[in-house]
């Protein structure tokens, strides 16, 4: 997370899990005048004279009951998503979601998705507000506390008999993970069970961003069945759902997922992440953008999706810390017709094969 003046970077999906509390703590100053966006929609110029921008949240209704955070991310493809709140009543998902966006102007783009489909269901998208979003959080917390007071943890399988009666193969799917969650968080969540080094895989989108889902393989079907007692407990402030899975889904997770999630850098490094690049931009363009600094093509790593398409992001490794800090001054300058956002990154994130693509 990189703070600069009044701007707060919306970051990528991996940072989403920590932001619900941050949104509530920071109030309206969390959002400032919107920068250029990565998606095609070109909103009209907004002027926030003597007033802050409105809280950027929309409400979705009519979602499939098996809808996941991955589906929401794909539905709003290209939009900066800060938080996704699934609305539950009496422990059951009611088909509604609150979605907090990175910038106020992105609400207008989100509203254009009204009555478009997720799966076979058309989804209604409404303008919402801060009060409705906070009320939704309170209702989810209150509902989960009531459920736990009646029968802690063990009450959840009774409300969903299909989980209790499902065949166990030793594999469990987790849904609703914070996007900052890594392998250590999963191991701690299932403390008391033996998890091998290659027993956890996090799912990623076509852009290489984690989706909030993961698969865990236990030593035996008996262990995975016992681990289902953790269904409905939390990692951080996120309610985690568990589902018995299959060996076929596990094999797919091994092929398409990643065994861990790089942590955001806790201090300045020599690596910067660029976001908002034109999809046709090459290393020569990036060298020209940073022409004041000594760089080589080997120090530039453009990210590609699994289909081989540019994601609009790149990692640049500078010769020293002073250069990388100085280069941050070019944040929101243009490359071609696009505003470029710059963030402090890390060597671990830069080396991550899923984000880099090649």
Question: How would a crystallographer describe the biggest sheet?
Answer: 5 strands, antiparallel
Number of helices: 13
> Which stretches are poorly predicted, pLDDT < 50 over at least 5 residues?
1-19, 22-50, 147-159
Number of strands: 19
- Anisotropy-based shape: globular
Word description of this protein:
The strands form six sheets. This protein has a five-stranded antiparallel beta sheet, sandwiched between helices. A four-stranded antiparallel beta sheet has the order 9-10-8-13. It has a four-stranded antiparallel beta sheet with strand order 15-16-14-19. It has helices at 19-26, 69-75, 106-111, 130-150, 155-159, 161-165, 183-189, 221-227, 247-256, 283-289, 321-327, 347-351, 353-356, and strands at 3-4, 7-8, 57-61, 81-89, 92-101, 116-118, 121-127, 171-175, 200-204, 210-217, 234-235, 238-239, 241-244, 271-275, 300-304, 310-317, 334-335, 338-339, 341-344. The radius of gyration is 21 Å and the shape is globular. It is built from 13 helices and 19 strands.
Task: Label this structure with key terms.
four-stranded antiparallel beta sheet, 28% helix, 358 residues, 13 helices, five-stranded antiparallel beta sheet, alpha+beta, 19 strands
Topology:
Blueprint: E1 3-4, E2 7-8, H1 19-26, E3 57-61, H2 69-75, E4 81-89, E5 92-101, H3 106-111, E6 116-118, E7 121-127, H4 130-150, H5 155-159, H6 161-165, E8 171-175, H7 183-189, E9 200-204, E10 210-217, H8 221-227, E11 234-235, E12 238-239, E13 241-244, H9 247-256, E14 271-275, H10 283-289, E15 300-304, E16 310-317, H11 321-327, E17 334-335, E18 338-339, E19 341-344, H12 347-351, H13 353-356
Antiparallel strand pairs: 1-2, 3-5, 3-7, 4-5, 6-7, 8-10, 8-13, 9-10, 11-12, 14-16, 14-19, 15-16, 17-18
């Amino acid at each position: 997370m990189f703070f600069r003046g009044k701007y707060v970077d919306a970051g990528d999906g991996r940072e989403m899990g920590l932001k619900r509390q941050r949104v509530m703590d920071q109030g309206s100053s969390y959002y400032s005048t919107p920068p250029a966006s990565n998606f095609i929609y070109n909103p009209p110029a907004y002027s926030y004279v003597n007033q802050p921008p409105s809280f950027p949240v929309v409400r979705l209704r009519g979602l499939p009951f098996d809808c996941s955070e991955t589906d929401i991310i794909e539905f709003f493809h290209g939009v900066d998503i800060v938080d996704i709140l699934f609305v539950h009543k009496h422990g059951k998902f009611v088909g509604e979601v609150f979605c907090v966006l990175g910038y106020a102007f992105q609400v207008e783009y989100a509203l254009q998705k009204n009555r478009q489909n997720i799966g076979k269901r058309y989804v209604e998208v409404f303008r919402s507000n801060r009060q409705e979003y906070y009320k939704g959080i309170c209702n989810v917390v209150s509902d989960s506390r009531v459920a736990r007071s009646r029968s802690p943890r063990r009450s959840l399988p009774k409300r969903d008999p299909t989980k209790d009666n499902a065949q166990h193969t030793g594999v469990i799917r987790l849904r609703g993970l914070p996007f900052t969650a890594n392998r250590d968080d999963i191991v701690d969540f299932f403390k008391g069970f033996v998890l091998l080094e290659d027993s956890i895989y996090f799912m990623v989108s076509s852009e290489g961003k984690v989706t909030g889902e993961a698969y865990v393989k236990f030593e035996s079907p008996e262990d995975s069945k016992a681990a289902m007692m953790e269904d409905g407990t939390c990692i951080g402030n996120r309610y985690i759902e568990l589902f018995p899975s299959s060996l076929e889904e596990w094999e797919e997770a091994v092929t398409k997922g990643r065994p861990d999630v790089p942590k955001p850098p806790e201090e300045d490094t020599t690596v910067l992440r660029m976001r908002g690049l034109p999809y046709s931009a090459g290393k020569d363009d990036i060298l020209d953008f940073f022409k004041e600094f000594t760089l080589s093509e080997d120090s530039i790593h453009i990210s590609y999706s699994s289909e081989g398409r540019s994601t609009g992001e790149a990692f640049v490794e500078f010769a020293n810390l002073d250069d990388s800090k100085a280069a941050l001054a070019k944040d929101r300058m243009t490359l071609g017709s696009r505003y470029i956002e710059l963030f402090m990154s890390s060597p671990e994130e830069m080396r991550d094969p899923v984000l880099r693509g090649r």
